[in-house]
Amino acid sequence: QVQLVESGGGLVQAGGSLRLSCAASGRIGGINAMGWYRQAPGKQRELVAGITGGPGVITRYADSVKGRFTISRDNVKSTVDLQMNSLKPEDTAVYYCRGYDHWGQGTQVTVSS
User: Fold this and answer.
1) Which of 29, 27, 71, 76 lies closest to 52, judged by CA?
2) Can you name the residues that pair with 19 across neighbouring β-strands?
3) CB atoms within 10 A of CB 11
4) What are the backbone angles phi and psi of residue 81, rounded to the nearest 5°?
5) What is the largest CA-CA distance in the chain?
6) Each residue of 67-84: b (16+ CB within 10 Å) or e?
7) Coil, strand or helix at 91
8) pLDDT at 109 over 80
9) Residues 4, 22: contact at Cβ < 8 Å?
10) Cα 15 to the chain's mean position, in Å?
């Protein structure tokens, strides 16, 4: 089994920043691609950012977050982080970590206007 545990969500004003972290544990042999997704009320879950396992790490972002969000990973610690800057009310959602064919439990991000 693989466990993905997210942390770092919360309430922030528009223009502020938050950093989400996802820690993987369990049967995680190898380094897999990982990603952050989000789901707002009444909307489908969408990919926010993804990062390959390496070597030669490749990242990709949803158009709506390019230039504001940065995904990174620490293969030694088995963590993947999402730095979110210049947050907007439309970024409000539950954010989920995805990796090793598993989902985390989600962490709420709320951006007030």
Assistant:
1) 71
2) 83
3) 12
4) -115, 155
5) 42
6) eebbbebeeeebbbbbbb
7) helix
8) yes
9) yes
10) 18
Task: Tell me the CA distances in angstroms from 34 to 15, 53, 64, 89, 95, one per residue in order.
Answer: 26, 7, 19, 25, 13
DSSP 8-class letter at 63: T
| Nearest by Cα to 5 from 16, 13, 28 | 28
Q: Which residue has the tokens 């969000």?
A: 69
Tokens at residue 9, please? 């969500």
Under DSSP, is residue 90 helix (H, G, I), strand (E, B) or coil?
Answer: helix
Q: 3-class SS at 23?
A: strand
Number of residues assigned to the chain: 113
CB of 112 within 8 A of CB of 16? no
Token reading at 54: 């390496």
**Mean per-residue pLDDT for 65-80?**
94
Structure token pair of residue 103: 């989902």
Q: Do 72 and 80 touch, CB atoms closer than 8 A?
A: yes
Q: Give per-residue pLDDT as tens, 21-51.
A: 999 988 877 778 999 999 999 999 999 999 9
